[in-house]
Amino acid sequence: MKITFLLDENIPFALLDLLEERGYNATHLKKIGKQGIKNGDVYHISEDQRMWIVTRDADFQNLRNFYTYKIPGIILFKMTRSKTQYLLEAMNKLLDKHHDKLGRKHLIIIEDHEMRIFEGE
């Protein structure tokens, strides 16, 4: 199964390029004309298209929603260092060290010096 990512509107397009360079399928809410939609709609797109949600929106750390929706998973960046370079480095680290987590439902919260991973169902 090919892993596919749905990038929230608060994620830079550079991450889309990185994911595609690494061989993943990815799209961005802005590229599909869905900027400004509610979080519930993001969950529905993720469910329908079987895409991992990648976001900076802390509302996506809500475990109730994470367990309720039938999504592949969520990657949430909660980093205080906001430069795109740091986000790209963190994603590369995740893909290098925890690629196996992408095969099952997980909530992955990436902070400046820590990565927390919660199992799905």
Textual characterization of the structure:
This protein has 121 residues and is of the alpha/beta class. The protein has a single domain, classed as Rossmann fold (3-Layer(aba) Sandwich), CATH 3.40.50. It is 33% helix and 22% strand. It has four helices and six strands, in the order βαβαβαβαββ. Strands 2-1-3-4-5-6 form a six-stranded mixed beta sheet, sandwiched between helices. The two termini are 18 Å apart.
Question: Largest beta sheet: what is the strand line-up?
Answer: 2-1-3-4-5-6
Q: What would you call the structural class? A: alpha/beta
Task: Count structural domains.
Answer: 1
Order of helices and strands: EHEHEHEHEE
Helix-residue proportion: 25-40%
CATH topology: Rossmann fold
Q: Provide the gyration radius in Å.
A: 13 Å
Major β-sheet annotation: 6 strands, mixed
Globally, the shape reads globular
Strand content bin: 15-25%
CATH architecture: 3-Layer(aba) Sandwich
| End-to-end distance | 18 Å
Features:
single chain; 121 residues; alpha/beta; Rossmann fold; six-stranded mixed beta sheet; 4 helices; 6 strands; 33% helix; 22% strand
